[in-house]
TrEMBL record:
Residue ranges occupied by any TonB-dependent receptor plug domain in the UniProt entry: 49-154
Signal peptide segment: 1-23
Entry GO terms, CC: cell outer membrane
Protein's name according to its UniProt entry: TonB-linked SusC/RagA family outer membrane protein
Top-level taxon of origin: Bacteria
Matching InterPro entries: Beta-barrel_TonB_sf, Plug_dom, Plug_dom_sf, TonB-dep_OMP_SusC/RagA, TonB-dep_OMP_SusC/RagA_CS, TonB-dep_rcpt-like
Length: 941
């Protein structure tokens, strides 16, 4: 089975000695460490001292993400927080796969984001330099206040605002260059010819006789990748504050080239905040966040891995067809794969997509009756996406016949257009009572919130017309519209979709502390939604948590070893509203067949699904318990937590006649989180830190719709008793070495076999190989993930490094398995194939004519464990005595390397793969997480 590298065991031993992701970089003295405990964190609809909370909230300072080369701030959180999994794709403008404490539903994985109070599905519109802090909420006592949105966790983002004092201007700029760390191992031309001709011989066919024409040796990855892609980030922030008014304005710009040619991403961001103190008890504010992005025309490397390496990209033979792109060999893949370079070069900048987001917000807040505060807040989110594109017509050269043919067989140029508009209006009214009387400290909050969302989209396509006097639509953006004079009106099609969602919520929270050592937190929320059927739209969510600060007790107050110890626990009932449709009670009608009337054919419409009158939200019953602690004059910190999350009444979309929704089934995620850290100072000028985290996660499908029910999602299965997303297939026990070996083994009923084919295990012992012998062959959820950081500072010279790894998960390889009758290129491992008895017991013979060897099996399973040097930064903070003469308050220069090196066991660009709730960890050849080497500067005036 799996072989584990010794280095992973060593890393686990190292992790025991210290690491706390929540620790600030390079603390100066014990006073700073004391303030760490007293830090204020966002808790949803308010703030609180972390010391007074009973749950698990991890705070990441904005400086941790501000100087990293990533457009989406979430990408920079990888490895920094226990219980937080971040899988980055590497494509410009992409959204990471983010999971908090495992997969807890079958309908969605990402947490809810709350940006300055407004709910969001993504934070790609934020400039990382604008972020003040990010709080990751993981436990029920922290999340129940979000009700039906809280099951997957929450990330609260607070952006920077003006501070009281003089005018401050901050300028930051960085530029970096990309390179590939890992890349798939595929055969070269000589190796391909060997394997392909051997495949033909095994099929009883003659060897390919045109390798004299196709005699190139091409690596298509090198042909289409962008060498030395540039990423640059620039921002300016101007803030001013007085006792009465605090104003902040920022502007950001980012431009990034992808790992494939012409994947250009460009984004402009802006933010404005104005906080006004009208009187001692009355405050108001207005804010605005906006972004405008030119989105990349995304490609992937799939065709470059599958295309045969024996054909040159361009025909360079003298003649009429000189300079045309070559077609792949007609017998070797041309019908399935186009010339990868022709796809990229011939379609460059032919899809122009833009994204615009506008988020104004305003609030009014006033105090009354000494202990009461009322805050009224209003938020608008407007997002508009537009795009138009063009499919060009051009010829490719056919070497076998010395002729030309239209690329991809396309005879008419086509044009497409789309627009989508997503508008949400959110308002909340909050009443807070806060008082301290004697040894009692009480904060009570009650709130009312509504969210109205409307979504509309339209798409259209059209073709040119050869009968049009103007001819084909030219490759010029000015003509790429559906109403262009080049368009044939008869080919014009349009589609639209739209929905409205309404939510109303009532909620409350209590934070109580007795003598600053006994804490009790409780939350209650009632959510109502238009998405559910009438009469069943409201549901309750709640939590309660308690904590005990043991070091406040007399028996520990005077000890010199344990400086801080708090034990804590919480239990709650959270909800999930991630669903594929918006109107469970009002299904739309779709085409379900045809009928003939008076000799004419008409579509017949049926309901998309049956109404679900009793459908309700999923409920997640969750609990945790653990402790937080500090030792040795607060230099050493140790935290540990056990969590258990069980989701009941899963929202299931059941395929049947008719289709229908129902609440059925449950899944569980549980595990441990550990964080620890060491922070110290040597002398007056040298400080250092070492911090990190480790998380274990186990998921399990507890029950489904009914006994024996199972659903397949590609290589993954949803079945009672198995982990969520478990891979399912046959266990390979080697290869048949001879016909005698075949006769002495269980007979196969799933395909004909011959020596050199897989020998599948008879799991159920019935003496034959059948589909019933399939079993769990891999788990995409790691046994544990870990991250740690080290750093030091000496007289302004600093260095820090972040490391990240996962252990114990499996990846399903979905490329290079011979999974098609088409002759694609091979993985290099195929050179170790079986060629006779004893030559191999793992790589099967080269034989693509049978589907037997292409069944899902352990042959496709790869060890997903990996270790990565995530980020290394070296820099210098200039002392004020050096820069004050130039009007500077701060100046920082730094050199940064992201994704410096990854050690893994996966044949691909990267060992990490996101996905859906029910299928993830599938290696589809991947997209690189590139190494980015950058230089940056930050100056404050």
């Amino acid at each position: 089975m799996k072989q584990r590298d010794l280095k992973y065991s060593c890393l686990i031993a190292v992790l025991y000695f210290g690491m706390n992701v929540n620790a600030q970089v390079t603390p100066q003295d014990s006073t700073v460490k004391e303030k760490k405990i007293e830090e204020v964190v966002m808790i949803g609809y308010g703030t609180a001292k972390k010391r007074d909370l009973t749950g698990s909230i991890a705070k990441v300072d904005g400086s941790e993400v501000a100087d990293k080369p990533a457009a989406n701030p979430v990408n920079s959180l990888q490895g920094k927080v226990a219980g937080l999994s971040v899988v980055n794709s590497g494509q410009p403008g992409s959204q990471a796969d983010v999971r908090i404490r495992g997969t807890v539903t079958i309908n969605g994985v990402n947490p809810v984001y709350i940006v300055d109070g407004v709910f969001a599905n993504n934070i790609d519109f934020l400039n990382p330099a604008d972020i003040e802090s990010m709080e990751i909420l993981k436990d029920p006592s922290s999340l129940a206040i979000f009700g039906s949105r809280g099951a997957n966790g929450a990330i609260i983002v607070t952006t920077k605002r003006g501070k009281t004092g003089r005018t401050t201007i901050n300028l930051s700029s960085s530029i970096g260059i990309k390179s590939l760390d890992n890349r798939p191992d595929i055969t070269n031309a000589e190796q391909f010819r060997t394997l392909y001709n051997e495949d033909l011989v095994n099929q009883g066919l003659p060897a390919y006789n045109m390798f004299n024409i196709f005699n190139a040796d091409i690596n298509w990855v090198d042909e289409i990748r962008q060498k030395g892609g540039i990423i640059q980030q620039h921002s300016v922030t101007i803030s001013n504050g007085s006792e009465k008014n605090r104003v902040s304005f920022s502007f950001g710009y980012q431009k990034e080239e992808g790992s494939i040619k012409y994947e250009d991403y460009e984004r402009f961001t802006m933010k404005f905040n104005d906080d006004l103190k009208i009187s001692k008890s009355l405050r108001a504010g207005f804010g605005l966040t906006g972004s405008y992005g030119k989105l990349p025309q995304l490609r992937n490397f799939t065709s470059s891995l599958n295309a045969t390496p024996v054909v040159a990209p361009v025909n360079l033979n003298p003649g009429d067809h000189y300079g045309l792109y070559n077609s792949l060999p007609q017998q070797i893949g041309a019908a399935q794969i186009g010339n990868p370079l022709a796809l990229v070069e011939g379609h460059r900048y032919t899809q122009l997509n833009k994204d615009f987001q506008f988020n104004p917000n305003a609030y009014l807040e006033f105090d009354f009756f000494d202990h009461f505060t009322f805050r009224s807040s209003y938020f608008l989110t407007y997002r508009n996406g537009t795009g138009r594109g063009y499919e060009p017509i051009f010829n490719v050269y056919i070497p076998e016949t010395n002729s030309v043919s239209p690329y991809s067989g396309r005879l008419l140029s086509t044009v497409n257009q789309f627009e989508n508009r997503d508008v949400s209006f959110q308002q909340n009214q909050l009443l807070t009572y806060k008082n301290k009387f004697g040894v009692h400290d009480l904060t009570v909050m009650a709130g009312f919130e509504t969210i109205n969302r409307e979504y509309n989209s339209m798409t259209g396509n059209a073709k040119s017309s050869l009968s049009n006097p103007l001819g084909q639509m030219p490759n010029n953006p000015r003509f790429w519209y559906l109403n262009s004079d080049f368009v044939d009106p008869a080919t014009r099609t349009a589609n639209s979709s739209q929905y409205k969602q309404r939510q109303v919520s009532y909620f409350g929270r209590m934070l109580y502390s007795y003598d600053s050592k006994y804490m009790l937190n409780a939350s209650l929320r009632n959510d109502g939604s238009s998405m559910l059927a009438p009469g069943n739209r409201f549901d309750w969510f709640w939590s309660v948590g308690a904590a005990w600060e043991v070091t406040k007790e007399d028996f520990l107050r005077s000890n010199n070893i344990i400086n801080y110890l708090k034990v804590k626990g919480s239990y709650g009932d959270l909800g999930n509203q991630f669903t594929p449709y918006s109107y469970f009670g009002y299904p739309v009608y779709v085409e379900g067949g045809t009928g003939v009337f008076n000799g004419n054919l008409y579509p017949a419409f049926i309901k998309q699904y049956e109404e679900a009158d009793d459908l309700t939200w999923e409920h997640l019953k969750s609990y945790e318990f653990g402790f937080e602690s500090m030792f040795l004059d607060r230099r050493l910190s140790l935290d540990a937590t056990y969590y258990n999350k069980k989701t009941e009444d899963l929202l299931n979309y059941v395929i049947g006649n008719p289709n229908f929704f129902m609440n059925a089934g449950s899944i569980e995620a549980k595990g441990f989180e550990f964080t620890a850290g060491w922070k110290d100072k040597i002398g007056e000028n040298f400080t250092y830190f070492f911090n990190g985290n480790l998380t274990t996660t186990k998921t399990k499908v507890l029950n489904t719709l009914e006994d024996g029910y199972q659903t397949f999602y590609g290589p993954a299965i949803y079945k009672e008793g198995l982990p969520v997303g478990a891979f399912y297939g046959y266990v390979v026990d080697g290869l048949y070495q001879s016909y005698a070996d075949i006769l002495g083994s269980p007979a196969s009923t799933i395909g004909d076999v011959a020596p050199g084919d897989f020998k599948y295990r008879d799991i159920n012992g019935d003496g034959k190989i059948t589909p019933d012998d399939r079993t769990m062959i891999g788990n995409p959820t790691p046994d544990f993930t870990y991250g740690f950081s080290i750093g030091a500072d000496y007289k302004g010279i600093f260095v820090n490094a972040d490391f990240y790894g996962v252990y114990g998960n499996e990846v399903f390889r979905d490329w290079g398995n011979g999974s098609s009758f088409a002759p694609f290129n091979y993985r290099t491992e195929r050179m170790d194939r079986w060629t006779g008895p004893g030559t191999s017991n793992w790589e099967p013979r080269s034989y693509s004519a049978s589907a037997y060897n292409r069944e899902y099996s352990t042959y496709m399973i790869e060890d997903g464990s990996f270790f990565r040097v995530r980020n290394v930064q070296i820099g210098y903070n200039f002392g004020k005595d050096l820069i004050s003469r130039y009007g500077l308050e701060g100046l920082k220069l730094y050199f940064n390397v992201q994704n410096l090196k990854t050690w893994d066991h996966v044949n691909g660009f990267t060992p990490e793969f996101g996905g859906s709730a029910t299928q993830f960890g599938v290696n589809t050849s991947g997209y690189p997480n590139p190494r980015i080497t950058s230089f940056g500067i930050s100056a404050t005036f």
